[in-house]
From TrEMBL:
SUPFAM superfamilies, sorted: Calcium-dependent phosphotriesterase
Domain SMP-30/Gluconolactonase/LRE-like region residue range list: 53-191
Record-linked Gene3D superfamilies: TolB, C-terminal domain
Organism: Siccirubricoccus deserti
Name of this chain's protein: SMP-30/gluconolactonase/LRE family protein
PANTHER family, per the entry: LACTONASE DRP35, LIPOPROTEIN-RELATED
Sorted UniProt keywords: Hydrolase
Length: 245
């Protein structure tokens, strides 16, 4: 069922607010894009960050006060022009959190809201960023938690205990890491050894359950996209509230 039409924009990432609003990271075909918000039925569509801001939004996550961390997926292997930005809840201009990333992609926030996880698609890295306030990094708080072999970290999610789930685009695999960033498990999609379902691009863990939904496709092989159901290692994270921050 179509709930909204985004003229000239392609939805790349979604985040759900406590009040039911859906925030959308939407890209255009010119290396830019916008952040939008709407009601679940598509009404009340408005622009949060316009295309004129110069970002290339890919994914986003809300904090406890409805501020947004947004990945800017500009760049290539040899061009680290992307990064992570914070959009304050009062509608002020985006503030840089991390610069000089090569195709920043997935982003997730720990349950307590003090640790940010960011995937760098072009260079195959997962960053663990300890925050002071909304936009500053703690001293010695930024580390490369994991280097991936092969392609390529896409969506990043956390569960209620802080474990990290990374969708590996091109591998048909979800890597699961501890809250410190150590690999502790994985989910392998069926058909990956035959080259099927490798284009794994997104996942979500249902709040209050151990059910993870995984979105993948056959890419250019002519197959369709599929949503798979698998078991997480813990409960999905509930919507954040200010008291939980």
């Amino acid at each position: 069922m179509e709930v909204a039409k985004l003229d000239g924009l392609m939805p790349a990432g979604l985040a759900l607010a406590r009040d039911g609003r859906v925030f959308v990271a939407a890209a255009n075909c010119r290396g830019g894009g916008a952040i939008l918000a709407m009601q679940p039925d598509g009404t009340g569509l408005r622009t949060v960050v316009p295309e004129s801001a110069g970002l290339f939004p890919n994914d986003l996550v809300l904090d406890a006060v409805d501020g947004l961390y947004v990945t800017d997926c500009r760049g290539t292997v040899g061009d680290s022009s992307g990064g992570v930005w914070y959009v304050p809840p009062d509608g002020a201009a985006p503030v840089p959190v991390v610069r000089n990333l090569a195709v920043a992609n997935g982003v997730a926030l720990s349950p307590e809201g003090r640790r940010l996880w960011v995937g760098e698609f072009a260079l195959g890295r997962l960053y663990r960023l300890d925050l002071v306030g909304a936009t500053a990094l703690a001293p010695f708080g930024a580390v490369t938690a994991h280097h991936f072999s092969g392609p390529a970290p896409d969506t990043v999610r956390v569960d209620a205990e802080g474990r990290v789930y990374v969708a590996l685009y091109g591998q048909g695999r979800v890597l699961i890491l501890s809250r410190e960033g150590l690999p502790i498990g994985q989910v392998l999609l069926p058909g990956r050894d035959e080259g099927r379902n490798l284009s794994l691009s997104s996942l979500a863990i249902r709040p209050g359950s151990w059910v993870v939904a995984i979105v993948s496709s056959d890419g250019g092989r002519g197959g369709s996209a599929t949503i798979f159901r698998a078991e997480a290692l813990g409960n999905g994270l509930a919507l954040r509230t200010p008291d939980a921050a």
